[in-house]
Write the structure tokens for this entry.
Amino acid sequence: MPSTGITQIQLRDNDGKTTDGKLYTTLYDSGDRIQRALLRLALLWALAGLSLFIPLAHFVLVPGFLIAGPVAAVMVYRSTQARDRAEGRCPVCGEEISIKLEAKDEIPKWTYCPACNAALQITEPN
Ligand SMILES: [Zn+2]
């Protein structure tokens, strides 16, 4: 089962004012990574099978999905963690905010407050 790692972060505004927050990251152990990789491979090869029945497009789609399957599986297998979200209090407007992150996001990262749209930087605590 993937576990959730929680790390301390800071939310910083343009003027350098900071508040404390929490960063939620999904962590995958080796079993999860193999399972996720096989799932991705099965999905893409199933799409290759389905695209067999599309006239003309199958000349491109079938080999495309067959190649994409192992490539995507290896990429998924190599990723050991996925960023989930950052939570904290916005240093500008004071609202409790939750910022959705992309799986590959790295810290520090600039983003926007979902409540007041101010530019915020998610950083490691000093
Ligand atoms: Zn705000």
